[in-house]
């Protein structure tokens, strides 16, 4: 019996959200008296043995470059095969874009109950109950999984990475890789150095910034804080910023430790994408902006006056 | 070309989220119900656009719901689509719903099956993937563009760190999100026409759900905003550093 953790990667790098799942999985294995293993499909530049520091004993790999492009059918078949060989009873994913594509498919294949978007470790005291975010961050549901094999996908940035010492044994799995039915034509990388879905700090701009020419200060503040940049729906709709920066009900839902909203009124559709943020800062010149009700800190003021001063203060802080 | 569009009934985006019966059920009293926005704005509208390009296309809508979903099904038919199928069952888990939809999909031999990215109530993002597996079909998750040339589809989908363009042969299952199409509003002709379009009701097949909701809870209330004067933004930086310890 084991806990099998799917390790996601892109451009040869293991995703930060997967490190969270490794930490979560190691903890869950200890809680259920089993062992935690990682599973990586494809190739990465990192030394997989170092993943042992997150508390896993072994990393299984299907070392095949064609798997660096994810086809859901191909991935599902390989993970199902690995899970059967390793008698995995719990299979874990990050609820990132990759996890959303594969975990449901695997759930149907193995007839294994799935909770997607988990926000905490399961309660295994009496049954197997997983807490997940529902109603676009406005509530939680406690879901019981009744099947022998259980699948959980963990919301990014909802479990802290725990690392110690330890080395994992790398085991190559000689599984047959079927031909993918989807053919990759091209890849377009997102702009920005920090991936929005994984960012701990996000600096976000809205219509209050008046035009794309004024994003310099947003980018500067983000860079200083090691943050990702984001925007509200009207900003993406007006093409001031790329669509992949749009957070909200119809865009990306994020849960950073710190969300700084500048010139965003905070309509309910926007809040649905950011209300899981741990701390929210709102800078808006309208004191009636609904966002202040959801905020932890706020400044009622003109962003064009306030933000440059904040940038200077952060520079001073970083220099001290 | 036959397209199946899976739709779901969800509470309106602005609905108050509260629970009853010892926090085991969503308190639906007074709640306005809508078609899940991802299903309506993106999958359904894209299917309608494909039919506008090729009028021989047939669009069927399908939902798993009781009779109280009929008004939203009529609204979907007012946007477009030739007929609707309602599987007469209350909602259970994603697996149960996907299995019901798969049964309809098998009977109708569709070339293309659209779902929304997720529903705005359970946020599971699970139906498309499950359905694809049950039908043994390729699956494009979280598409932001979708085009057809004969039976070859080209899709752009969102992946970690960007987007990729994929090509595949139909039949296939695609989950749609923003970018695939633009929201439309039904016109009077559509609304009148929807009244006479067929709405078939079928009974569910026997399926055991794999998961069940034990209880709901609301997140802890925020303590309230701490306002910093606009002439002293340095104070905000100090609070984020010393009090919140985030920068």
Short overview:
With 320 residues, chain A is α/β, with parallel strands linked by helices.
Notable traits:
heterodimer, A: 320 residues, alpha/beta, Rossmann fold, 2 domains, seven-stranded parallel sheet, five-stranded parallel sheet, elongated, B: 247 residues, nine-stranded mixed sheet, two-stranded antiparallel sheet, 6 helices, 31% strand
Structural commentary:
The complex is a heterodimer of chains A (320) and B (247). Chain A is of the alpha/beta class. Chain A is built from 8 helices and 17 strands. Chain A folds into 2 domains: 2-172, 3-Layer(aba) Sandwich (Rossmann fold), CATH 3.40.50; 196-319, Rossmann fold (3-Layer(aba) Sandwich). Helix content of chain A is 28%, strand content 27%. The model of chain A has no long low-confidence stretch (mean pLDDT 95). Chain B is an alpha/beta fold and 247 residues long. Chain B has a single domain (2-218), classed as HUPs (Rossmann fold, 3-Layer(aba) Sandwich), CATH 3.40.50. In chain B, the strands form 3 sheets. Chain B has a 9-stranded mixed β-sheet with strand order 11-10-9-12-8-1-6-7-13, sandwiched between helices. Chain B has a two-stranded antiparallel ribbon with strand order 2-5. In chain B, strands 3-4 form a two-stranded antiparallel sheet. In chain B, a hairpin with a 4-residue loop joins strand 3 and strand 4 (25-26). In chain B, helix 2 (70-79) packs across helix 5 and helix 3 (94-108) crosses helix 4 (127-135). Chains A and B meet through helix 2, helix 3, strand 7, strand 8 and strand 9 of A and helix 1, helix 3, helix 4, strand 9 and strand 10 of B. Strand 12 (183-189) of chain A pairs antiparallel with strand 11 of chain B, so a sheet runs across the interface.
